[in-house]
Amino acid sequence: MRRACITGGAGFIGSNLADRLLADGSEVVVVDDFRTGRRAFLGDAAEHPHFRLVEGDVLSPGILEDAFAGCDWVFHLQANADVRHGLERPRLDLEQNTIATSKVLEAMRQTGVSNIVFSSTGSVYGEPELFPTPEDAPFPLQTSLYGASKLAGEGLIAAYATGFAITGVICRFVSILGERYTHGHVIDFYRSLKDDPREITVLGDGKQEKSYLYVQDCIEAILTAVARHEGQGGAHVYNLGTDETVIVDESLALITGRLGCTPAVRHTGGVRGWTGDSPLIRLDTSKIRSLGWAPKLTIGLAIEKTVDWLEANEHVWRPQVQP
Amino acid sequence: MRRACITGGAGFIGSNLADRLLADGSEVVVVDDFRTGRRAFLGDAAEHPHFRLVEGDVLSPGILEDAFAGCDWVFHLQANADVRHGLERPRLDLEQNTIATSKVLEAMRQTGVSNIVFSSTGSVYGEPELFPTPEDAPFPLQTSLYGASKLAGEGLIAAYATGFAITGVICRFVSILGERYTHGHVIDFYRSLKDDPREITVLGDGKQEKSYLYVQDCIEAILTAVARHEGQGGAHVYNLGTDETVIVDESLALITGRLGCTPAVRHTGGVRGWTGDSPLIRLDTSKIRSLGWAPKLTIGLAIEKTVDWLEANEHVWRPQVQP
Questions:
Q1: pLDDT per position as a tens digit, A177-235
Q2: Which of B304, B11, B20, B42 is nearest to B177 (CA)?
Q3: pLDDT value of residue A86
């Protein structure tokens, strides 16, 4: 890859990807408005001569056209990644995920970029009947606005692949963990334990079965699919995850074990942590494995690595006091 | 049903549905901006004391809230229904189908309407591998912006059904024919033959296999699903079509037979009529049939009925000369 643009490139996965692509010898353009992305995550990349930052909202006119010029790949990672609170602001998922993806595709047409990676989600399977869930599972019903907005993005990319001869690599992620992780179960538990290590509340019955993937394994999987499909045309869907799952109570135990605390655990009850929560996520990853990829870290190790990183980076999880 | 709002209620299916619901004793509110809907189609309904017209674009602020007040059902039929030309104006499907559906759902929340019928399409199956294609076919890839935009609408409705306890009836239509038909293969052929009955051009190889359903059969199927699911919660997906198919050359022969002309037929070639065209549409309709519904008209009779109606309604297909 000669030059890549990463939307949301100051975020968790995006900034790790930027570092990786720069190390691999590519030029990298990051688009980010720093609403959830963090300048500190681009600390290393910003020093690199092959790095360029385009600061702004992907929905602002001209931003993407500026950023995409001369790129051969777009990694469209910018998103509203807040699954749980979708119902409070339904417009957010539509704008930040669906409409933004349409803008990205139009800007690709304008600038002649013909390869895109899209960060989709295992949430598009809703509550599947088939486990582990393969990419061609029975046509699912959506259960969250987040999943629906990502499904809409997938549909746009596949239609553009048919209509405008672009190549789309659609990655359906499980939850990603690792360095620069800022959002999700693990940080919620971590914050709560830092605030009060004696007790913690778990949404649902704690038996929800989740899957996680370490961020460097995620990036390796993305680049494996990229190498396989570059310039090939069509839309190519991959589940990205481990073959393991972990129940919520177990992941909490891994965190408390690492922190050396033994809180009293209160469950709010019910098989779902919130409306639209999937009680069971277990993706069939044989398709990406068939390309030669395999994860290096277990879920347990990924959780421990994440906790260790949070311990060393208090600025990420400690609310800032406004001066 | 006490009071129903029909978006796109001056269109082909919408105006037929309005007449039917009024005849069944319901109050009917039609929302239409007459961009493609026609005032003439509301001729009968407009005289009815239980009819109200709200003229305007569904995307305009306040229009839907006005129209939905006091309704128990919304039939969201307004759409950009132009499958073939989606690639020329990619923004149109996004705005008219996806974003408009989001507006409809938000307006339902604002006004407390909790039941919706959505006019989706067999195009969401892209180019399926399974025929006849059931509602839970393998998770498809989108091949048209139209299909993608309708899939996005389906996803929103299902997510709202989970999150906000609405009931969604999602109908995946084949092409609909009958009185007030204004758009699609049959009228394209009809217009061309009226212009020059000696020759006609068919997009593709003419062997594309399509499915059609008569508009009154379509409405009966919708109302069958409505009666089954009202107030039940959840999203319920139904294929609506006949179990027949007809190849494009055969449908042309039915039209020329009805018109008594014998044109030379030129094929542009290729298995698809245009980029994103589905060479084969055959839906499994056993789910809607299991509710007791069956179509009354064959595809052949539906095509003949449509041609007869076009013959009697020149104003629909003859371009108007501007004064």
A1: 999 999 888 999 999 999 999 999 999 999 999 999 999 999 999 999 999 999 999 99
A2: B304
A3: 76
Q: Facing residues of B121 across strands?
A: B173
pLDDT at A74 (0 to 100):
98
Residues of B in contact with A164 (CB under 8 A): 87
How far is C-alpha A236 from the geometric centre of its chain's CA atoms?
Answer: 17
Q: What is the pLDDT of residue A273?
A: 82
Contacts of B258 (CB under 8 A, 6+ apart): B303, B304, B307, B308
Q: Do B151 and A152 touch (CB under 8 A)?
A: yes
**What pLDDT band is residue A322 in, cutting at 50, 70 and 90?**
low
The beta-carbon neighbor of A90 closest among B106, B162, B275 is B106
Query: What is the rounded CA–CA span in Å between residue A144 and residue A187?
Result: 21
Backbone phi, then psi, for A120, in 5-degree steps? -95, -160
Residue A101 has pLDDT above 80, yes or no: yes
State residue A166 phi and psi, 5-degree precision: -90, 165
Instruction: Tell if the CB–CB gap between A145 and B164 is shorter than 8 Å.
Output: no
Which residues of chain B have a CB within 8 Å of the CB of A155? 142, 147-149, 151-152
Give the minimum alpha-carbon distance from B313 to chain A in angstroms, rounded to a whole number: 35
CB–CB contact A159 B276 (8 Å): yes
Query: 3-class SS at B128?
Result: coil
Question: Domains in chain A, start-ordered, CATH in brackets?
Answer: 3-177+214-240 (3.40.50.720), 185-210+244-282+296-317 (3.90.25.10)
Chain B, residues 231-260, CB within 8 A of chain A, namely 235, 237
Distance CA A21, CA A37 (A): 18
Record: contact B91-A98, CB cut-off 8 A: no
Q: Given CB atoms, is B300 within the 8 Å cutoff of chain A?
A: no
pTM for the whole thing?
A: 0.95
Contact B99 A102 (CB under 8 A): no
Dist CA B213 CA B171 (whole Å): 13
Evaluate whether B180 touches B215 at the Cβ level (below 8 Å): yes
Bigger pLDDT: B18 vs A88? B18
Question: At residue B272, does pLDDT exceed 90?
Answer: no
**Contact call for residues B48 and B250 (beta carbons, < 8 A):** no
Structure tokens at B55: 């003229």
Q: How high does pLDDT run on average in chain A?
A: 95
| Best mutation target, B141, B237, B275, to test chain A (most A CBs within 10 A) | B141
Alpha helix locations (H) across chain A?
12-23, 43-46, 63-68, 90-93, 100-111, 145-164, 185-195, 215-229, 248-259, 286-289, 299-312, 314-317
B313/B308 Cα distance (integer angstroms): 9
List chain A residues with CB under 8 Å of B102.
90-91, 94
**Contact (Cβ atoms closer than 8 angstroms) between residue B94 and residue B107:** no
The answer, for A195 touching chain B at a CB cutoff of 8 Å, is: no
Higher pLDDT, residue A277 or B211: B211
**Rg of chain A (C-alpha set):** 19
Q: B-chain residues within 8 Å CB-CB of A148?
A: 152, 155-156, 158-159
Q: What is the pLDDT of residues A126-181, one digit of tens each?
A: 999 999 999 999 999 999 999 999 999 999 999 999 999 999 999 999 999 999 99
Q: Is A108 on the interface with B (CB under 8 A)?
A: no
Question: Any CB–CB contact under 8 A between B83 and chain A?
Answer: no
Q: How far is B184 from chain A (nearest CA, A)?
A: 20
